[in-house]
């Protein structure tokens, strides 16, 4: 394999002192953002169902995030990743067309507990590796398979890599763990969930569960076919240890599909520039790429349908001047002003936007006013892209906006402070706060 590093060996050889300081800093802010999304998502019906399932059907001694109960490492990884997915506000990597951190964080925490690893620097190293492997695995899978698979398809192998490191599997066991995870990872089709938005979401929870199971099987001697995305995709591993892909994650300002965020930005920009309000708008027209047009639910009846819609969050943005978790659930789904604009919104597929995808997710908006005037935006991309990232202050504000209403500002502050000190201290202080149930 003609790579700068053998991915199977590098996984075990990397030391925390080998990682640049800004990369560790990025891992810390990713942890903060992911935990904020998990806390915000913990009250969803999806999260409650999956937490109960993990506690009841996966017996073990690993604590479940934000729950107070225990499960197996696979059950804890399943519940944590699915809960993050439930709010759809987590980070992602454009070339992957998906999200590494969603499965990586809960799986790392579960394996760290199982292995008795308390060293915060080692935990951050494992999380960093999860991003580095996950993003490369995603690009390798997209390069070798014609279908558009959910993040769980390749996150399963990234989780296996993390578990192999933390449980100190042998090189041979590691190779089998990655092979088992790839073979049994969920090759679920992303566009099926786009066309039929339900609780299956991006498959990250199932991928985390499959990856965790693969590690434990390999540890016991179970064998698997070699991982194609690791061993037969050398071009994606050439820059391992040289180009840190965790630096290239985008973040989400709104808890909806990334594909819907560019038109939301365009609507908010027009709303600010022209001081236009909902009552003046007859209908909205959006030009974007094919996948965004497929987000077609204009009268969502569940939070999943609202998150996987373009028209509904656009209508929310026009009516409220923002898009927040509370706008995507419960009575908010029946807001008559939002529904009027959502049902009348026109989506058009644009060739230029199609050519830019997946590296750029572009949209342009026209507001057709009742007066007959048409306000047109420039082309917009989602906010907080990797090349124009949010500030730490902005991500901290997002964390507290998600976390404070659910667990209270004191506990949220304690979690943020524990993450700030994670690289130099143990995991214990953070663990005390993130494993309590949300009502404690």
Any overview of this molecule?
The protein has helices at 7-13, 21-41, 45-57, 73-87, 101-115, 120-144, 151-166, 171-184, 190-195, 204-219, 228-231, 261-274, 290-293, 303-307, 311-320, 336-344, 351-356, 392-407, 409-420, 428-434, and strands spanning 62-63, 70-71, 281-288, 346-349, 363-369, 374-376. The longest helix has 25 residues, at 120-144. The model has no long low-confidence stretch (mean pLDDT 96). It has 440 residues and is mainly alpha-helical. The protein has 20 helices and 6 strands. Strands 4-3-5-6 form a 4-stranded mixed β-sheet. Helix 4 packs antiparallel against helix 10 (204-219) and helix 5 (101-115) packs across helix 6 (120-144).
TL;DR of this structure?
This protein is mainly α and 440 residues long.
- What order do the SSEs take from the amino end to the carboxyl end, as H and E? HHHEEHHHHHHHHHEHHHHEHEEHHH
End-to-end span in angstroms? 51 Å
Overall pLDDT: 96
Q: What fraction of the residues are assigned to beta strands by DSSP?
A: 5-15%
Shape: globular
**Order of strands in the sheet with most strands:** 4-3-5-6
Residue stretches low in confidence (pLDDT < 50, at least 5 long) are none
Could you tell me the radius of gyration in angstroms?
21 Å
Class per helix and strand makeup:
mainly alpha
Largest sheet: 4 strands, mixed
Q: Please estimate the helix content.
A: 40-55%
Number of helices: 20
Strand elements, count: 6
């Amino acid at each position: 394999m003609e790579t700068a590093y053998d991915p199977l060996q590098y996984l075990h050889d990397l030391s925390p002192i080998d990682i640049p300081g800004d990369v560790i800093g990025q891992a810390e802010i990713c942890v903060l953002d992911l935990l904020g999304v998990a806390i915000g998502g913990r009250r969803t019906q999806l999260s409650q169902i999956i937490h109960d399932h993990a506690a009841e059907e996966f017996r073990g001694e690993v604590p479940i995030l934000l729950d107070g109960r225990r499960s197996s490492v696979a059950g804890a990884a399943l519940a944590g990743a699915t809960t993050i997915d439930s709010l759809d506000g987590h980070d992602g990597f454009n070339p992957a067309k998906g999200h590494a951190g969603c499965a990586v964080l809960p799986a790392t925490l579960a394996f760290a507990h199982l292995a008795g690893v308390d060293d915060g620097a080692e935990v951050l190293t494992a999380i960093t590796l999860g991003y580095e492997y996950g993003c490369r695995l995603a690009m390798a899978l997209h390069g070798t398979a014609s279908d558009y698979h959910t993040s769980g398809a390749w996150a399963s192998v990234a989780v296996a890599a993390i578990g192999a490191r933390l449980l100190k599997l042998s090189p041979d066991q590691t190779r089998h763990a990655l092979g088992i995870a790839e073979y049994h990872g969920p090759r679920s089709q992303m566009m099926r969930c786009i066309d039929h938005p339900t609780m299956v979401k991006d498959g990250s929870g199932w991928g985390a569960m499959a990856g965790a199971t693969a590690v434990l099987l390999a540890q016991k001697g179970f064998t698997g076919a070699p991982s194609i995305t690791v061993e037969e995709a050398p071009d994606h591993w050439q820059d391992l240890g040289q180009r840190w892909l965790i630096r290239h994650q985008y973040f989400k300002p709104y808890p909806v599909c990334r594909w819907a965020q560019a038109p939301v930005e365009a609507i908010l920009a027009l709303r600010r520039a022209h001081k236009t309000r909902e009552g003046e708008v007859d209908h909205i027209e959006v030009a974007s790429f094919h996948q965004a047009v497929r987000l077609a639910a204009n009268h969502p009846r569940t939070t999943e349908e609202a998150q996987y819609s373009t028209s509904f969050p656009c209508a929310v943005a026009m009516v409220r001047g923002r898009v927040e978790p509370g706008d995507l659930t419960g009575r908010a789904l029946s807001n008559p002003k939002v529904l009027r604009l959502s049902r009348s919104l026109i989506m058009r597929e644009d060739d230029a936007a199609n050519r830019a995808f997946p590296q750029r997710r572009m949209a342009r908006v026209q507001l057709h006013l009742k007066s007959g005037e048409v306000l047109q935006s420039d082309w917009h991309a989602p906010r907080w892209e990797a090349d124009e990232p949010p500030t730490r202050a902005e991500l901290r504000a997002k964390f507290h906006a998600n976390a404070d209403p659910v667990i209270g500002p004191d506990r949220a502050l304690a979690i943020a402070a524990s993450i700030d000190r994670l690289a130099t201290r143990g995991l214990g202080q953070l663990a005390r706060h993130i494993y309590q149930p949300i009502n404690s």
